[in-house]
Amino acid sequence: MLDYALDGKGLWKLDGRDTVRCLFIVGSGLHIKLKDLTVTNGYASSSSLNGYYGGGIYVGNGAILKMERCTLSSSRTATYGRGAGIYVDNAVVSLVDTVIEFNWIYYGKGAGIYLASSSVLTMSGGSIVNNFARSSGCYTVSTMEGGGLYVAGGAHATITDHASIDNNIAYKGGGIFVDSLGELVLYDASVTGNSHIESYLGTTYYAWYRRGCSTSYAYESYGGGIYLDSNAKLTLIRSKIMNNHAYYYGGGMYFSSGTSASISECTIISNYAQYRGGGVYSVSSIVTMNNSAIESNSLAGTGSR
Q1: Which residues, 6+ apart, have CB-to-CB distance to 237 below 8 Å?
Q2: Residue 248 confidence (pLDDT) above 90
Q3: Domain residue spans of the chain
């Protein structure tokens, strides 16, 4: 087992200068700890090692990465890439009071974090904020999934201790997209303001409607806060789903066929959908709720809850 630690002391920065990936961490038995470090301006393309995955950081093949009080920002991948901020493949990543912000990707998945099969993410405190899976014009494609976090089938993510998933954008799952057979646990966490209109560096990004585009090019977004694909699993405890938007269905959350969701002591409030399910939209799924509130959600169509 090899252990490495890098303490940035709040002053050090790894800068890819928009041309190279910042960190490539691969290998069973490799343990890396980053503390008080800024990782920024990373870029991965088809010519990068292992391709256009992980603009800021790539973690794979059994490696273990812990980031404590770090910031990962402003990284990207080439078109149709995955994990502009972090790409995790058959590896373990632990985030403690860490911020994943302003990472973006064209037509890709997991602008903030992409968690591939057999990978595990634990996040305690911190935030995943202002990450964009977006297009370059007045149309969308189905590959734009998981603005903040993408959890693939066979992967598991646990988010706790007042961590927040805020103001991220994607076609499906503005905040979080959980693919078939993926698992997500939120405990004392919040998912707020995802797939809304955002401005960054003078450019305005629209997730649920593109102003200046014809209505036929509206962003047909689903699951503004969380999108669960078929047979995905969600456990939601003492958490808040608030002020998320979807142009089509499921402003707060969208549950596909076969989804299993357990919701306890949660609040689903002030979310919006253009057509159905302002708070929650469910299709042939199993949803169990205890001591939870669905309130003040709205939509232009029917079924505000």
Answers
A1: 185, 186, 187, 188, 264, 265, 266
A2: no
A3: 2-299
